[in-house]
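Q: I'm teaching a short session on how sequence maps to structure, and I want students to see two examples side by side rather than one. Could you give me a first protein with its sequence written out and its structure tokens following it? Keep the formatting plain so it prints cleanly on a handout.
A: Of course. Example one:
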Amino acid sequence: MTDLSSLLQPDRGQPAHAIHLVDKETFDSWLGIQPQRHRTAVAAQKLRPSINASAILPGERPDEWSVVTVVADAKALTPWCLAKCAETLPEGQYRVEGQEPGPAMLGWLTGQYRFERYRKDEGKTGPRILLTGEPARIEETVRLAQATATVRDLVNTPAGDLGPADLETRIKALSIEHGATLFVTAGEDLAKGYPMIQAVGQAAGEGREPRLIELEWGDAAHPRIAIVGKGVCFDTGGLNIKPGSGMKLMKKDMGGAAHAIALADLIMAAKLPVRLHLLVPAVENSVSSDSFRPGDVLRTRKGLTVENTNTDAEGRLILGDALTRAGEATPELIVDFATLTGAARVALGPDLPATFVNDDTLAEALLRAADAQSDPLWRMPLWDGYDEMLKSDIADLVNAPEGGFAGAVTAALFLRRFVPENTPWAHLDVFAWRPGAKPGRPKGGDAYGLRAAYAMLKERYPV
């Protein structure tokens, strides 16, 4: 993983290159009071007041150069307004002239993330270090950036190197780091206790067997919360096999698990006063003679029966058993993350996680945190009128209704069947992938809703 911990440092007056922040409104007035050498440099570099544009400004001596960069609002910084600088400036130390970087520290860190597991270290530049007069903010900002890097690393790793056993290894390391307890259910115990997880993963070969991975941490006297993440390490679609184009990115189908693992790490590192229960059903949805079939009726841990109408709607199946297990411990809150439906992406695109919440107070807290963290969520309806779409002629419900209407909603309604009544629950249908680069957010695996969920939990369970 990219180590981001040294890229923020307390400002003790050490030498550093200044970063001057301007916006469209202040650009001309700033330029008008600059010395001639700065105006010449700006003209030579053809700097215009467009967001993320920047220029190097010469100093009186060669090592005294500074930087000017254009942001949306120089008085209201965002997490991403310095990210382009972090990606492109020469290595060295920097400080924002005349103000603290505040929220922009996050993008400074995430802009220097690199996934280099499979590439030679060629042309790598040194670190860009940002100084801040708010040292108390450094530790938390680094945690958030490292959590984002965790999601990116896990999602970016090809399925050949990240199967169910590898997810187990990652969570085991987390349990050791934080003094948590690890439980893994596999084999006959999985088949008896979690039949939907077993059914989805049973076609995978030796070494890729399905399992339910659970971690518990914290004082048993504290409020119990459950974090659940969909861990489909690769999704062929099963016998309802995907075309090649649809299978191309299916290494990211464990993106929900990546979010859940990163969130659990944040919770434990911050020592939030909760009893944490992390649950990751880890499977590979493969094709073999042992594949579960369209038309099969599946038993569930809850006791319901599910007519499997589409083997490519497998994520909700494994989550159903995991949510049932989470509810058995009587948590006061359940949050799940899943790369669940293409319908959510059609409706909202990659940047907005479709967010389903069965409790208005919880929904308001999540959306408030999302706004404060610049980590957007979009609430979608758990529309009771569509619950009838889940009816089956031969079982208690189907996993994938025909017709394709409201696909993200019906998937969430399916999950709701396995959440204890009156337990506050939030379901985030995330994409976990950034199809195009933005400052601080490279193309590839990425975290969506992670910071919002963590901020909500910090507000709900203050240290």
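Q: Perfect. Now a second example for contrast.
A: Example two:
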Amino acid sequence: MVLCVAITLIHVLLVFLHVAPANVVSQRYSRTVNAWVYPLFEQNWRLFAPDPDSVNRQISARTAHTAPDGSVKVGPWFDLTAVDTSAVEHHPFPSHTAQNLLRRSWTSYVETLGGDDEPRSDRAVMMRTYLRNIAAERVAAHRGGPFEAIQLRVITRPVAAPDAADGDRPSPPASPATAETRLLPWWKVTPHGN
């Protein structure tokens, strides 16, 4: 009982320091506070002021496995976004995880690593590992089979604006020429991760 109360008080204190205006204490313990808060307890205002995506992202993964003869076998692309979409569309009460885990991990990855995929902070390394683990777990759950490396591909397409003449029907989807494809480097995956 005492342990539960102590952990609860520590949690409340660390979250308070995270959301409170900058002060001497929150600045001094920022590394500890951020290590506790990110990525599980992150606070934002999207509930009150939603910032809807203006793009659709298709996140796919492929794996590589070294065969006993030394050759490297690269698997086909597996659409991680389609798995999430299917879980949301065919479930009357989809979980927050099914709706946002992959999307938010990608957003956090881009915010911390930028466009060159080189981490410059501990948080960036953590977000890269987090995204890699999500992808590896989902591929392993749906495909099976061993693999030692994983690569992600993200295709970003702008969301079509509604047709000005008929507000009820959306415009045709954006052409493939407007799609942006980002291919991430191969990441090693530990055997216990798949």
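Q: What should students look for in example two?
A: Point them to this: Residues 2-37 form one domain. Also worth mentioning: The CA atoms of residues 89 and 144 lie 24 Å apart.
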